[in-house]
Design a protein that fits this description.
Strand order of the largest sheet: 10-9-12-17-14-15
Pfam family, one: Cu-oxidase_3
Mean pLDDT: 94
Family: Belongs to the multicopper oxidase family.
Helix content: under 10%
Low-confidence stretches: 1-24
Number of strands: 32
Enzyme class: oxidoreductase
Shape: globular
Protein name: Laccase
Bound molecules: 2-acetamido-2-deoxy-beta-D-glucopyranose, copper (II) ion
Number of helices: 6
Structural class: mainly beta
Distance between the termini: 58 Å
Strand content: 35-45%
EC number: 1.10.3.2
Length: about 575
């Protein structure tokens, strides 16, 4: 009886969160996403959260390589909302991309928007999330993209596939957390828990029975589709006594890389094989923060889930936690990132060597001085800000894509600089305070169709150095190099990996360092470029790249759908 009960609970729990999947799935080209509130209990209390279809994390979208899928979004919540399909290039179709006031006006409460997801070169795992205010904390879910019919994975077919969605949970209502830090000018409250598939795990109060549990059979192989959906934290993830073999990153295959931990930044995804090749038992999988800054506080809790072998054995009552790198282990983080190699035979095009467009941009934390009537809980009684090339991005109140395509002026301007407007020792220990205050603007960069772009992100030590996960919409890019200190064109270009770099959509730029990416700008549209730490996005660490139409018929932005939400 007891056993039966346990099984039933496990069964229900799987239904509640995700079904564990085999590879053949019910083909579905159309999804209905109802954005609405649902009550969820975590950390001993119940509160309403915004969800899609009442689920947290939200439903999985499944598609084959190259397919087109439609999502009918219906906003039954009380907030404006937009949905973004993270890492889906959306060729010629920025209209469905989603970032609020960049490619669309929000879907208002009661409103609907039918979004088209055109999959092209992506294969592996991506995810979708809200791209308005901070609602993505609970409004997000996985996207599984299977190989084209009659083709296969570049690795042995796994016995099952499992979503592993990493997130953050606040006891307070997330909109209050956002409202409070924007009003006060200080940093946002840290989350109260990290989560795996929506569950904090049994190291937190009231979380024992709900902990996510992955049941495995000895000898079988499982494909973990890992997503960092956290708002503000980079994470280390590991499974006790088991290795992970990374086979894809950001829906692009990689050379197999076997490690006992991974590091994953907000926005990134990792496909990793887990071989159930250990003594049958109960094991923990766990995630906790990677945070390099000596001054920032962070949620230093550990989220866990269980790996449970089938069979008849006496399980250890308290299985060991996996060894995770220490919070500030920058070496562990970049040793891992630097080891990921792409799979050239699966590249969509060769790594560009003939660069036509060079862009270098600083990414900085900043402060604005306190004006009268403001609350200023930022450093030294200022208000926090952030910038790229010293411009703190001001989000307009109508869509940049609409303005661009209808030739409406006054919404944005074209002055985003291709190089830092002022050259200083970006990573020097002490920097003059007057460099700290950025300009405000809504400046975009216009790029010719077909350009080959090299973009270097240069972290600075203004205010404080920290790692930034920079994410580009509309295309993935080759991550060709990274390093610490100031980017040195002469010296550092020679260290680039132009042979087998990973092809990704979000790159973690090292603390007080730089990262270089290259790609071909062949997707016309209005594409957001931003830090995927939500607090930095809120403070202005973003810009927009507009890729112009090409001359050919198939090189132009498609017409907008008839139901674009109005402002
Ligand atoms: C959540 O629970 C509260 C208190 O029981 C209830 O008033 C509210 O209607 C519930 N909300 C939803 C969306 O179910
Ligand atoms: C896939 O392979 C099967 C059997 O070899 C064949 O009948 C079918 O036409 C193929 N489908 C495609 C889309 O190539
Ligand atoms: C943020 O944290 C502070 C200090 O713990 C607390 O007083 C405040 O209510 C919190 N704000 C929100 C929105 O949770
Ligand atoms: C993990 O991988 C390392 C290096 O490949 C290997 O030495 C070790 O035995 C593996 N551990 C397990 C549990 O498979
Ligand atoms: C986490 O932070 C709390 C509060 O600052 C501190 O007491 C605790 O020692 C920290 N735990 C770890 C593991 O660093
Ligand atoms: C499990 O193993 C124990 C000890 O070997 C045995 O007594 C028991 O009958 C087994 N249970 C099942 C369901 O096989
Ligand atoms: C990491 O943190 C520990 C403990 O706070 C400290 O002793 C160490 O110097 C830090 N390491 C780095 C690289 O900052
Ligand atoms: C590089 O690209 C430019 C512009 O497309 C072209 O004019 C030039 O010939 C190319 N150079 C090489 C070496 O391919
Ligand atoms: C705080 O501001 C004052 C006045 O502008 C300045 O002299 C001081 O150096 C600042 N301190 C820090 C830590 O930024
Ligand atoms: C820049 O600052 C760093 C860190 O303080 C220092 O090591 C380096 O020598 C400085 N570079 C120059 C060119 O001054
Ligand atoms: C940014 O621009 C402001 C206003 O022009 C200037 O005061 C500040 O020094 C600049 N900072 C940097 C890092 O360029
Ligand atoms: C919702 O969106 C509309 C259209 O852009 C805007 O006018 C309104 O101010 C927004 N509401 C909130 C609460 O942001
Ligand atoms: Cu950032």
């Amino acid at each position: 009886m007891k056993m039966w009960l346990d099984k039933k609970i496990i069964f229900l729990q799987i239904i509640c969160c995700f079904s564990l999947i085999d590879i053949s799935y019910q083909r579905q080209n159309e999804y209905n996403f109802v954005v609405k509130e649902a009550n969820y209990t975590r950390l001993c209390s119940t509160k309403p959260i915004l969800t899609v279809n009442g689920k947290f994390p939200g439903p999985i979208i499944r598609a084959y390589y190259g397919e087109t899928v439609y999502v009918n979004v219906h906003n039954k919540g009380k907030y404006n909302i937009t949905l973004h399909w993270h890492g889906v290039a959306q060729p010629r179709n920025p209209w469905s991309d989603g970032p609020e006031y960049i490619t669309q006006c929000p879907i208002k409460p009661g409103g609907k928007f039918r979004q088209k997801l055109k999959f092209s070169i992506e294969e592996g795992t991506l995810w979708w999330h809200a791209h308005s205010d901070w609602s993505r904390a609970t409004v997000h879910g996985p996207i599984f993209i299977y190989p084209r019919k009659n083709t296969s994975y570049p690795f042995p077919k796994p016995n099952a596939e499992v979503p592993v969605v990493l997130g953050e949970w606040w006891k307070s209502e997330i909109m209050d957390v956002q409202e409070e830090f924007l009003r006060t000018g200080g940093g946002p409250n840290n989350s109260d828990a990290l989560t795996i598939n929506g569950q904090p795990g049994d190291l937190y109060p009231c979380s024992k029975s709900e902990t996510f549990k992955l049941n495995v059979d000895p000898g079988k192989t499982y494909l973990l589709r890992i997503i960092n959906a956290a708002m503000n934290v980079v994470l280390f993830f590991s499974v006790s006594k088991h290795n992970l073999t990374v086979v894809a990153a950001d829906a692009s295959y990689t050379k197999p890389l076997t490690r006992d931990y991974i590091c994953i930044a907000p926005g990134q995804t990792v496909d990793a094989l887990l071989h159930a090749n250990q003594e049958p038992n109960n094991y923990y999988m766990a995630a906790r923060v990677y945070s390099s800054s000596p001054v920032l506080t962070f949620d230093n809790t550990t989220t866990t889930a269980r790996l449970h072998y089938s069979g008849n054995y006496t399980s250890t009552s308290s299985p060991p936690l996996p060894k995770l790198p220490y919070y500030n282990d920058t070496k562990a983080a970049y040793n891992y990132f630097g080891s990921i190699k792409g799979l050239p035979k699966r590249y969509p095009y060769k790594v560009p060597t003939n660069i036509t467009t060079h862009i270098v941009t600083t990414i900085s934390l900043n402060s604005f001085p306190c004006s009268e009537g403001q609350i200023c809980q930022g450093p030294n009684r200022t208000r926090f800000a952030a910038s790229m090339n010293n411009i703190s991005f001001q989000t307009p109140s109508s869509s940049i894509l609409q303005a661009y395509s209808n030739h409406v002026s006054g919404v944005y301007d074209r002055g985003f600089p291709s190089f830092p407007p002022f050259i200083f020792n970006f990573t020097a220990e002490y920097l003059p305070l007057d460099l700290e205050i950025p300009r405000r603007g809504t400046k975009v960069k216009v790029i010719k169709y077909g350009s080959t772009v090299e973009l270097v992100f240069q972290g600075t030590r203004l205010l404080q150095g920290i790692d930034h996960p920079m994410h580009l919409h509309g295309t993935s890019f080759y991550f060709v190099g990274h390093g610490f200190g100031n980017f040195d064109e002469e010296k550092d270009r020679k260290t680039y990996n132009l042979v087998d770099p990973p092809f990704i959509n979000t790159v973690l730029v090292p603390i007080n360092g730089w990262a270089a990416i290259r790609y071909r700008a062949s997707n016309p549209g209005v594409w957001f470029l931003h830090c995927h730490l939500e607090r930095h996005l809120s403070w202005g660490m973003e810009t927009v790249f507009i890729v112009k139409n090409g001359k050919g018929h198939h090189q132009k932005i498609l017409p907008p759908p008839p139901d674009m939400p109005p402002c």
